[in-house]
Specification:
homodimer, disordered N terminus, globular
Chain lengths: 333, 333
């Protein structure tokens, strides 16, 4: 039994929920190559950057990215401001919980509407509201809380990367404030390593103390090319590893692999209708089509949830504290 | 001799270039309070955020913030594009090296002009050009390289904070790409912990490979309120410690101190005409006036360079490699 086989099947397997596959080997090989002292592909620790899409890559995203359910929940709380939302699409579909109609709108339109629902809250208020909701909110079909729809194999991968001094980032089309409300506790990813779509915001004085309040206007729509622009703005380095699951991630995967040295892009394919969902180009809100063709042409590993993962979701974990601890110690707003 | 006295004057002093002072005690006390297990002011490591202004706080800024000298150097390289710059202010003053005239323009106007000079470069091209320039470029009056105009006491403070599991960030009105070209090597601050003013940018394909290219248009002018907006966007947490030297930092200092628990804002006062420069409200480009009044009202420590620092600049360090190592391993652009 060779060392590689031991790594993949033995007791020391850092990715126990990953079946032996080309994708798993590619991951383990990359980590070996960039960390081995004297390797021609050695990358200094500070430059070992791994970026992960969020919806559909680290947790599920059907029937809709989960922030849409939080936004729907918040509609009631913003009744006084609904008059400005009522004229916008897809307001009616949100009120009627018509997920299919919502998904038929473009990703930008839905993201914009969701951010508009959240407008008016300070960062601290948003974090409190999102944490409280996440604590109990359940997926409409999967029979578990949204925060338990996180993929166990990806938690192992994040951990393996960090154990090898990679810095792990989320680069999501979803709202960055929403993800920051649980990323530290659930993924071990601190707020400053979460990049996402964001509303414009401004500083206001609340009883003389500055708070940051969201405005009903998109600041950055973190999808496609904009993911690369934001990686450049927030991180400033070309990632060594990028993991996505849709055409929105295509440019980010390309950006990561088009540098020198050992680099890796991976695509997650949702092909497990029994344990999760099966879809790709037919999910109009966020299709996987062009990226699949490029993965094929470039030899990027495509991870089959059905074949490559022994386990889909993490164990249900009801006791963990959600929300970032620092927020609870700020009195202002 | 008490433990505190030992810390301040003994062999174990983590801030040897700081004379005993209210500022020094406040720093040491804050670090003790937030790190002591069981302390009512304990802050978990992930939430120990320290933010530092850059020009005038971590290195000198007279007669002009140093990026202005790099921009002036670049004017020659962008001769072909000068036709669009020539109509703008303060073009003529840059051509004539008239620092006083440049400093008489507003900070926003000067920052915008500097970013416009740099437009058209990819992130990697910019890093190469800035690193090459920084390697030898010298301050016109201080008789040392710009990168050696970094303050030794601040290097000790950054190190002391990190040794106590603070994450140290730069939040500068200067261009974030410029600071990222040396912050890792000089301050130990990685690119993703540098926040600053930025141009808009876009993704382009260069020989089929995505690169990020700067546009001649301001994306974010990271000053005053915008510093707080960007701390919220890039970090997502309210800092525990903030250090600045001008009215542009006022809101950031206020934001840091206006949370619960033990927090600290500090102001650096340039009052040492002999070893550096002496100025405050009279430096029109970036005055210190309102912030000084607020420091007085709130009891924020004001650090006197003349009285509180035994040493101003770090030792000259000609051998260190500038530029981020990852950039050198990217072939694209």
């Amino acid at each position: 039994m060779t060392v590689v086989e031991l790594k993949e099947v033995g007791l020391d397997d850092p990715l126990p929920s990953w079946r032996p596959s080309g994708a798993k080997s590619a991951i383990l090989d990359l980590v070996d190559a960039v960390t081995a002292a004297g390797s021609p592909d050695f990358v200094p620790p500070g430059s070992r950057i791994a970026v992960f899409d969020h919806d559909g890559t680290l947790w599920a995203e059907r029937p809709l990215p989960f922030q849409a359910f939080f936004a729907q929940h918040r509609l009631a709380a913003v009744a006084g401001r609904e008059v400005t939302l009522r004229d916008r699409q897809p307001y009616q579909a949100f009120v009627e919980s018509d997920y299919e109609v919502i998904a038929s709108f473009g990703k930008r339109e839905v993201t914009e509407f969701i951010l508009a629902i959240h407008a008016g809250m300070t960062t601290e208020e948003f974090n409190r509201a999102a944490s409280a909701w996440l604590r109990n909110a359940r997926h409409p079909e999967l029979g578990r809380r949204f925060v338990d729809c996180v993929y166990q194999p990806q938690l192992e991968l994040l951990e393996h990367l960090r154990a090898n001094h990679f810095k792990t980032f989320i680069v999501s089309c979803g709202g960055l404030r929403f993800i920051r409300a649980f990323a530290d506790v659930v993924y071990g990813i601190p707020p400053e390593q979460v990049i996402g779509s964001s509303e414009r915001s401004r500083v206001e004085l609340q009883e003389g103390r500055p708070v940051v309040r969201g405005l009903p206007e998109m600041g950055s729509f973190d999808d496609r090319d904009e993911k690369v622009v934001n990686i450049d703005l927030h991180i400033g380095l070309r990632p060594t590893l990028a993991f996505g699951n849709s055409d929105g991630d295509l440019r980010m995967l390309q950006y990561a692999t088009d540098g020198d040295g050992c680099r890796l892009a991976l695509l997650l394919h949702h092909d497990d209708a029994e344990r999760e969902f099966a879809y790709d180009r037919d999910f109009r809100l966020s299709p996987l089509d062009q990226a699949m063709k490029l993965a094929d042409a470039r030899g990027w590993p495509v991870v089959s949830m059905m074949r490559d993962w022994t386990k889909i979701f993490r164990d249900e974990n009801k006791g963990e504290p959600l929300g970032n601890p620092l927020f609870s110690s700020t009195r202002a707003g």
